[in-house]
What does this fold into?
Amino acid sequence: MARLTNDAWVLIADGEKALFLRNITDSENPNLEVVRKEEQDNPKDIDQSANRPGRMQDTGVGQRSAMDDTDWHELAKERFGDELAALLYQQAHQGKFDKIVLVAPPKTLGELRHKMHKEVADRVIAEVPKTLTNHPLDEIEAQLSGEIAG
It folds into this structure.
């Protein structure tokens, strides 16, 4: 299992928030400090939709079918994933981190993995499929100590 060594970064993310942390101690007793915060203003889909879903003429006589409305909330989450992958690449390319642990819900991890540049992927030392975006730092440190062997 990977070790959360000194100076390794930890990305805590979901579809709307990302917290970049850096371990300033060793893997035995991680002490994380905030490097950067990213947050997207992404209201619920109902607050972003302008009108009810449309209807279209069907092939049968007098038949009409409902059409799905655009899920703006989901689109914004996908766009955030793209932006996060680009930001990770920029930080890696500038030599800001050599090792990184990704902590995100399984779906977000999958999307990140798919969008991530090879330069970033080569630096990923562990993935933790959990949602920790709203947890305090000490709780994140405790969770990571349990997930990543020292």
Summary: The chain has a mean pLDDT of 80.
